[in-house]
Design goal:
3-stranded antiparallel beta sheet, 9-stranded mixed beta sheet, binds iron/sulfur cluster, 10 helices, single chain, alpha/beta
């Protein structure tokens, strides 16, 4: 039996105003302690029936911004996962990266550590849009990050885009898609911007400071995206995900197909399939409390038992 492993790195250099993930802006982060906590949790989970004796088919480092961590930390997590469970020889191992946090040496380090797929949060190639979205990088940094990823030997590369940003036009979105495709990724994710409660954008929308696009404008943009990406060779295989043939993200499909996955880290979600139903549980969200619990006693978690399964996505950065 195989399962998928998700590792959540909750730190970011800045909090994007639309983001409702469990991510925390920080100028420094307790990388060693957090890595140790993840390994501690991993070893404890290995004793649970859903995972014991099973090996790992896909791994996904999500966040937050996993590319803030050093390649050595990522390598120690992969070593621990291999020793604890065994990683399949053809495993897909993805790391989410912010284009503003990488250089050539770091990307080579991730590749050497065993990561074989990168996912960059590009979001747009329009600098004004990136600024509005609170991103820490500009379009040139994304272009350079993609080129560096190819040079570092990554054959599998995803670029995330966001559309339906206030004042964005259909032509702007088509330009973003063209720019993304020109960088040669094998996978593009295109997300409709949403205004989630608790985010800065949500409160600005409530106060009338920003105005989302009308829903028919958003629907028209989504339809245009669905047409344009396949026209460029990226077939749609999920609501927001498009890939060249055979390059679908296997880890994403695990969630979509309700297969078992183990989520490690602050706020990480888990699912253990059990016949036609299953058990979901999720960890303590606060990173400092998570570190203390994972290192000392075990994770505080909340659990739900389910009998009728519908596709569901856990949190991840986009
Ligand atoms: S969108 Fe990504 S980079 Fe921005 S705050 Fe959220 S997790 Fe961090």
């Amino acid at each position: 039996m195989e399962f998928s492993l998700y590792l959540h790195i909750p730190y970011c250099q800045a909090k994007c105003p639309y983001c409702d993930f469990n991510s925390h802006a920080a100028t420094t982060w307790p990388e060693e302690d957090y890595t140790r906590a993840l390994i501690g949790e991993m070893r404890r989970r290995a004793e649970e029936a859903a995972f014991k004796g099973n090996s790992i088919a896909t791994i996904f480092f999500g966040g937050g911004t996993p590319s803030l961590f050093a390649p050595a930390s990522i390598e120690s997590l992969l070593d621990a996962a291999d020793k604890t469970f065994g990683i399949e020889r053809n495993a897909e191992i993805t790391l989410e990266a912010n284009p503003g946090t990488v250089d050539q040496e770091k990307l080579r380090g991730f590749r050497t550590a065993g990561v074989n797929r990168l996912s960059f949060g590009a979001q747009s190639f329009n600098d004004a849009t990136l600024k509005f979205l609170g991103r820490i990088h500009d379009a040139d940094q994304t272009r350079e990050a993609a080129r560096m990823a190819h040079r570092a030997g990554f054959e599998r590369l995803n670029l995330d885009l966001i559309f339906a940003v206030p004042e964005q036009t259909r032509a702007d979105v088509m330009r973003d898609i063209a720019e993304a495709a020109a960088l040669g990724p094998d996978h593009i994710s295109a997300y409709n911007l949403t205004f989630e409660e608790g985010t800065v954008f949500f409160s600005e929308m409530r106060r009338g400071k920003i105005r989302p696009l009308e829903s028919d404008e958003q629907a028209e943009m989504y339809a245009a995206v669905r047409e344009e990406l396949p026209r460029r060779g990226y077939g749609m295989y999920e609501i927001s995900n498009y890939a060249q043939p055979g390059r679908e993200c296997r880890h994403n499909l695990t969630y979509w197909h309700n297969e078992t996955y183990l989520g490690l880290g602050a706020g990480a979600h888990n699912f253990a399939r059990d016949g036609g139903g299953g058990r979901r549980w999720w960890n303590e969200r606060n990173p400092a409390r998570y570190i203390a619990l994972a290192t000392e006693t075990g994770i505080a978690e909340t659990e739900a038992r389910l009998s009728n399964l519908a596709p569901r996505w856990p949190s991840s950065c986009f």
